[in-house]
Structures are given as structure tokens and as C-alpha cells.
Design brief:
C8orf32 fold; 4-stranded antiparallel β-sheet; two-stranded antiparallel ribbon
Length: about 260
């Protein structure tokens, strides 16, 4: 039986404390700063800057690879792909380098939301990006899924007659427009049957997985072992979505 969703108290907005470097977010890294500058140099508003950086990270293919430790923002930038935590680290770093307060709010989702990717998890961690724009925190997790993966996942869920799977809801939002919040799997609150718990706000993925709230659930070593065992299977599922967007029964699919 699904346990009642647990929501932590809303914290007092303090955007200024979410602008600094961390072990994963080196805001002085030359390549990171150069890319941020190139993406935002023609932007005239904070919203425009945030959207330019969001779109850059969103376009990166979602996927998992081996981890001995959480990847730094620079490592993710160099590889050009990543899972939710990888892409979160890069996007937070880029936003902060542009002078925009950003952080991740980690939530737990029912593992069934990953149907089609893996059935081996009971709970799924989801880093929701929070960006301070126009005097408020705006939330989104749409940066995790590149457009091809998201569109293909939606198509397959509709074909299967399922509401949830591949990490999304079949009617989940595909894009964030910098005006309010947008979610691929529904809002992180009690109205969402996949939402289990709000774990709080963090600078980056390392701060989350070394936090007491995370350690009460599992050990860091255990998490990394499980992560790497599941990584090849999850990555294969994401690649299949991108590379085979048409379903086998789809009459529009070309055959040789």
C-alpha cells in the first residue's frame, strides 16, 4: 500500500545563498564560463539567460554511465550527456555562473514511474531544478529529458495505455518557459500519486547524497554500486527510445 506523501515545510526564500561554487560546481572553470558567456551574451533579461542555459542542457541526451563519484559540472559539459543528477549539476552551475540563484530540490517518486526503464527500484530520486526569477522560486524537471526521448516516451505510453513510465506522465509538460513551474511527471505534492516525499533543497547532487536525510535511506557505497549495476540497462532503454521512436506496429514506419 502506498504510504501518504510526506512534504517538508517550505523554507524562507534566501536566493543569495544559492550562488556559490561547490565541489561539483566550479564556477571559475574557464570552459564553463566561456560556454555560459556564449549562450547568454545576446540575452537582455534574467529570464532569457535562464532559458538559454536550460535549453542547452535539455538538448543533451539523457543517459547513465559509470560513476565512481558524482560527476562535476565540467565533466558533464565535456561528455555532453548525463542522467538527472548529472544534468542538474551542470544546469545549476551554469545558472549560478550567470548570476542567477539556482538549486535542486530532491524528491522521491514511486519506482513505478520508471516502468520501461527499470523495475528494480522501489523509490526513484528526482532532482527538481529551482531557479530564482522575478522574486520567486520556479521549479522544473523538464531539463532531464531531451526532446526526442520525451516524445518517444509519450508515444509508447499512449500505445501501452499507461499513465506513467519512462520517468514521466503521459501528459507531462515537455518544456519550461521561465514563467511558473513545469513538470514531466506531475507536481511534487500530494496531488501526484507518484510523489512520495520532499527531501529538501541542496546545492548539488553531492550535497544530497552525503546529507543525513539521504543516509537514513541508504549508504553512499550501496547507492553507487546499485547505480552502476543498473546503469547499462537504463542507458540501453534511453537509447532505444531515441533511436527507435516508431513502434513496431506503427504503419508510418518505413521498412526496406
Amino acid at each position: 500500500m502506498k504510504q501518504p506523501a510526506e512534504v517538508l515545510p517550505v523554507d524562507v526564500p534566501q536566493p543569495g545563498q544559492w550562488l556559490g561554487s561547490t565541489a561539483l560546481l566550479d564556477l571559475e572553470d574557464p570552459r564553463l564560463r566561456l560556454r555560459v558567456h556564449a549562450l547568454t551574451q545576446l540575452c537582455t533579461t534574467e529570464r532569457d539567460k535562464a532559458l538559454a542555459l536550460y535549453q542547452f542542457v535539455k538538448r543533451m541526451p539523457v543517459g547513465r554511465r559509470f560513476k565512481a563519484a558524482p560527476h562535476t559540472a565540467r565533466e558533464v559539459l565535456d561528455v555532453g550527456r548525463g542522467d538527472a543528477l548529472d544534468k542538474a549539476a551542470l544546469l545549476v552551475a551554469m545558472l549560478r555562473a550567470a548570476g542567477i540563484p539556482a538549486r535542486i530540490r530532491c524528491i522521491l517518486l514511486d519506482g513505478r514511474i520508471l516502468h520501461g526503464v527499470t523495475s528494480a527500484v522501489r523509490e526513484a530520486d528526482r532532482p527538481v531544478l529551482e531557479v530564482w526569477l522575478e522574486g520567486a522560486w520556479q521549479q522544473t524537471d523538464t531539463y532531464i529529458y531531451d526532446a526526442d526521448t520525451m516524445a518517444s516516451a509519450r508515444q509508447r505510453l499512449k500505445h501501452l495505455g499507461r499513465e506513467w513510465g519512462y520517468g514521466i506522465h503521459v501528459e507531462g509538460r515537455m518544456l519550461w518557459h521561465g514563467e511558473g513551474s513545469a513538470f514531466v511527471g506531475g507536481p511534487p505534492d500530494a496531488s501526484n500519486p507518484m510523489f512520495l516525499r520532499d527531501m529538501g533543497c541542496f546545492d548539488d547532487p553531492l550535497a544530497y547524497i552525503t546529507s543525513p536525510v539521504f543516509r537514513r535511506r541508504c549508504s553512499l557505497l550501496g547507492r553507487l554500486v546499485r547505480w552502476n549495476v543498473l546503469a547499462p540497462f537504463s542507458d540501453r532503454a534511453w537509447r532505444a527510445l531515441r533511436e527507435q521512436p516508431s513502434l513496431p506496429h506503427d504503419p508510418s514506419r518505413k521498412t526496406s
